[in-house]
Amino acid sequence: MQKNRDNKQRNKPLSIHAMVLAVVFFCVLPVRADELVNPFLQEGKWFKTALHVHSNVSDGDVNVPERMSQYREKGFDVVAITDHWKTSALTGLSDKSFLVIEGMEAHPKGNHFVCLNLPEGFEIPRDIEPQAMIDKVNAIGGGVIYAHPYWLGHTIDDLLSVKGYMGIEVYNSVCELAIGKGHAEVHWDQLLSKGVIIPAVATDDVHGSPYVGLAWTMVKAKEFSAKAIMDSLRSGCYYASCGPVVEDYRVEDGVAKIKCSEAAVILFGGQTSFGSRIEAKDGKLLTSAEWQVPQDCKYVRAEVIDAQGKRAWVNPILNPKKP
Asked: How many domains does the chain have?
């Protein structure tokens, strides 16, 4: 299906063949309801991860080794180098306590995709169709994250026009600092409300050294390897943050429960108008909250906002009480 058909074409009745293709398309959207896992119920260790990073291989201000040193100093465990349309030589940059993942940022037809776990020298034609690019990355064992949709002005139709990406950037600190368009909670919620249950990452999309480490993704993995990190990213075994720490999150007996570092506000949200906002009172900050999830609420995601306005985002859990 193409999203930019002219009006005349759209008004034609669908043939049987076209209707079959339409059904197939919507059946294979990136719905991950059966694959998402709750990281707080999984074994493994937490790894502070940067998934969208630039160097002077494209439009960053320092070379790859210097950029990696900056992230080491900030306490990161995993960093993906994602220069525009190019991979980098990463030999010797990883060790037992620091993992560098090969990647690139590609932008076919105005879309921006963060492509991870690529082989060195991997190339993508500049004129490739967006869906073909996602398929090509997935075919070699990589994964794709839909980058900064608010900054790009993307709509829900754009997000639904491709399939097979493993997540979306809910927050991009560079886009937020530059023009105030770093948040994509609305885009994420629209996908979730449509039944496209995918996880969301936070990134700093760093180009300049002063902005290293302003957002990250806390990945829980069973071992310290690129494969294990990628497996966790595909299954949503992580949470995103630009400050707050989430200690636990789960839904039990119809109640969503979260434990976290000190927060001024905790949000629970489901599709459309389902949700709850819990605020700190009497000068006492929150470190936990609960919400009785309505039976018709399909999923619940959580958000933690600290006293400085910094946030953490927890991936959705399907409501086990939904009939």
From this structure: 2
